Structures
1.
Amino acid sequence: MAKNKLTGKTEVYPFWSMDDIKNMMDYFKMKEMWHWYWVFNAGLLLGRRVSDTLSFRWSDFFYENGRMRDEIEIKEQKTGKVTRPYVCGACKAALQLYIDKTSIDPMENYNGFIVTTEQKTELLENQEEYSEREFEGLLYRATQSQAAAYRKQFKIAADACAIQYPVSTHSTRKTFGYWSVKLHPYDVTTVDKLQGIFSHSDRNITLRYIGIAREDEIKLYNDMGDFITDVEAGKKPVIKNSPVLPLKSEDFREILSKCWEMAANGEDKFDGINKLIGMAERRMI
């Protein structure tokens, strides 16, 4: 993965391709790495950081009567903020598959970690020997060590899946945002919702974080490439700055009906076009 020479940070992207997401899932299933399969899915479906995902306990997802929760409450390890992700059906299914494949009984391990290590299990068993501050510090270091193991396996999986752009364990969180926007192309509030989910201070930070800004930048580069190619070939370039007016389907039908009515009444074409554009602008989402 290429590093930014100025900051030394590695910039990673969301999974641009649905095939790449599926291939990563299939890899973990094929290798029967059910713990990493769950962590990968939890990142995609809950949009959490890896450190938070590895801190999930069975009690976060289950009531004491064994019924799975629809909402969880977690305190982010990095920011200290409390968030309440919704647990969708696909997330519950991924967790259930993990349970089925590992034969873990959530009720017998109710206060334990969903994905644990010997070190974390030992810490829980001997928690009373430490002060609260000591325990939190030791648990933090144990979780970071576990996250490092996941990052290593994640890179092996990404290489095996021949993913051609920089990804890391943080890509699943970014993928949650990127595909949320793609799945709701006509909802102009999606980015604002994601800004709240990710606790970002600015909308533009969210756009860049989830890869939408980068995707738009790449499109500009490609459009310029097409433009120069056309110029060199002596072709008239296609200008791509036509205005886009997002409309609700019922408003679009109303405008089409108005167009039909105006044509039937023999109204002037140019006056009619201006009226229709005005209607569209007033109903623009």
Note: Residues 132-160 form the longest helix (29 residues).
2.
Amino acid sequence: MSTADLVHRAERIIGDAAFARLRQQRHTEPNAVRYALDARRHRPLVRGDGRLFIVAADHPARGALGVRQNGMAMADRYDLLERLALALSRPGVDGVLGTPDIIEDLALLGVLDDKIVVGSMNRGGLRGSVFEMDDRYTGYDVPSMVRSGVDAGKLLVRVNLEDAATVRTLEKTADAVTASAESGLPIMLEPFMSRWQDGKIVNDLTPDAVINSVAIAAGLGTSSAYTWLKLPVVDDMERVMAATTLPTLLLGGDADGSPDQTYASWQTALGLPGVHGLVVGRTLLYPQDGDVAQAVDIAAALVHGR
């Protein structure tokens, strides 16, 4: 049975009529996007136990549609939206991270009330392209996030010491951090030390490399008052977290790995000082057994202790 079959075996969160209405609004009522964003019920970024569990869905805008052996797993937008709506309906899920197209679809579908919305500024350096290290931002910018009522921003900052395009990424990231601080908008930086290897960009996930990326990212911009970090779970996470005082969320990791091992690594890292939650995408939206609700519930329990 396919993942999609398993997702839709239970009662659907979004029906055909809602999708038809979404298409109609996209076609004839573009102002409906603004109304939906303005009307959604907001919540504080940090509340209750202070932990955050965010579901990520900014992969399609990077041309990264594959999950495990299925290179087009995320190509069906309706299936992706159904999975996101299901995830957002589960207890303990605090919000969603996405590019404007995803966030606006979810707003029009009415599933963002009392949820944190993290706007992905995306990256121009598409995977596999000759310009992959030119990570100029191509999604949200700070003024548009403020206008849209987005609760926080997110960007990727890959540092390749052998590629001159990195300096543009650093400059644009510093500008975004400065603008966010001036606007009072929290911004999540996802840093990596990266390199070219056999014509591809590879991120260095050794503890020393992650620590180096943290040091570089934390110093970007004229103020770090609103800067958060979004870091991979690697070996020696205690030493990684000792490298920063900034609030940190953990990346979801590789969707190909063993779920039990993945959950165990999250649980250990979530107990470290300075770690305040998870940001996970394909690992939970497209779990190996197809049970999105169960995967999301396990992660929510790890974050919030339920």
Note: The first strand starts at residue 52 and ends at 56.
3.
Amino acid sequence: MQQSRVEGLAEVRGVYEKMRRAICGVVMGKDGVVDLALVSLFAGGHVLLTDIPGVGKTTLARAIASSIDASFGRIQFTPDLLPSDITGTSIYDPRRARFEWISGPIFAPVLLADEINRATPRTQSALLEAMAEGQVTVDGISRPLPEPFFVVATRNPHRFQGTYPLPEGLLDRFMMATSMGYPDRRAEIGIVRAQIERRPLEEMEPVVGVREVSDARELVRSVQVHDEVLGYAVGLAEATRGHPAVTLGVSPRGSISLVRAAQARAATRGRDFVGPEDVKDLAQSVLAHRIGVRGTATPLATTAEDVVADVLDAVPPPA
């Protein structure tokens, strides 16, 4: 049994390495962000990318989709977008005298939710059930989404015109949130050179199949989590709730996401057990977007990232 699990996790690492090489050939100089996105995919979660336009958020999402031999759905969120534009709707067919279901773009293994905070909160909420339960309920009928189902959402900074805040419930459904940031000079030169000479994204070919990704997600759940490491992850979440600058601490869903992400990180590195470093290294990306702060309530912590840093200093990892 032990040998079969180790062999299975070796397959996870193989799928991860093939996807990582293909994606990093298109998204240059952002290996860390690519790693986080793939860890979220393998852990069964979803990822939120927040940054200014033009730094590669959409390119990363499309590259992930292109690396998998699967259909790709894209929704451009706008203020006039309706929930039915995402989920689908029933249309009456007079020839057959019955309603016919027309699936929306959400019925795809990989979904790009582009500029998600440009739509109204009512429309944003159409993603809640899909991201949490892998299904969509319309007119009282629940329809399962494909497996795997992976959402890559992009968000413009809240100070940009025409944006709406994301509800806390929706933010909590994203396993990870991170940003692209500007590339360094060397990477940017490579990006510009590649774009003026060819179109790397259009030349990209799938390197893994849907079944391989689904199998990898199942195998990740077999990665062992020692009670002390589990207690460390829960302790970090608990510590956010008592922080003086926090108005909304990390929920139990955040604790679950942190442990599952740590399992995926361990598997992609060829290990069949989670170490404290897996939890610690992922804490910012998994926890910060779930925290509400008082702003300038204290001089020591004014952002969610500061809170997570404080918690990491306060809660010692197991030996």
Note: The chain has a mean pLDDT of 88.
4.
Amino acid sequence: MKPLHKIIVTISLLAGCAERDKHGNVLDTPTAGTITITADESLRPLVDAEITAFEGIYHNAHINVTYTSEGAAIEFMLNDSARLTFVTRTLADVEAKVLSDQKIVSTHRTLATGGVALIVNRQNPDTLIQLRELKKILLGEVNSWTDLRKESPSLPIEVVFDQPNSGIIRFLNDSLVAIENLPKNCFAVNGNSAVVEYVSQNPRAMGLIDVSWISDRDDSTANSFLNSIRVLGISRDSVFYQPYQAYIAQGKYPLRRHVVMISREARAGLASGFMAFIASDKGQRIVLKSGLVPATMPIRIIEVNHEPL
């Protein structure tokens, strides 16, 4: 047998030994193949960065991602339309039961801690807000900027968020105030970038976005957003904090939330490989660069003394 024929036969044998599904299709591995995943649209900057890095290292890996609302992202995964989802909560009991009825044991893993940022138009002189004031706004008890501060513009407050089935609103409902029905001045647009655009054009608006959209100072999109809006400092008592990485890490920023990966994969496939990469040093450094707090590696907080020597 000629050497070239030997090589072809060897490749054919290796291909024949590849693991296949019940339809005879070659299954993906932890570093190769194609899968579909979903993610809460508010997490797009972080998820995009992780996918780009992973596919840049493993050229035979292809991850197709659908960005949608938190509820829809989880629903896709439960219905086996996606192998993996990125959201900011764990599964509810009723959702976990959907998987257990399918004989699937889900895997949960926290990859980062981020938060929700409150943004206003650059013409708005308000730069600070108390949590109790935010509660009153979401309950419809405060409707005008002058209700917060007399020197504020005499404009009604419009609260704009990212999706009709928003994970941000769900987070505030769970952690800040129980909201049966949002007041009429609260409405959804189509994603976090649309929230920033609306707020940048409307002095009366206050927007709710994920901090990952404005926390990577090396990202041109984040810097463009920061130049078009103001980020509010938030306080539980008398000290106000903006969503800086250090304040999130120290637990001082009031609207902190975790970013969670949930997989339905029952074997060591591409979803498992991608999760392992994100939890590794390389994946966690991407979290760090994104301005969020990594889950599995320490970060260094440096306090700068501005007093003259």
Note: The longest helix spans residues 3-17.
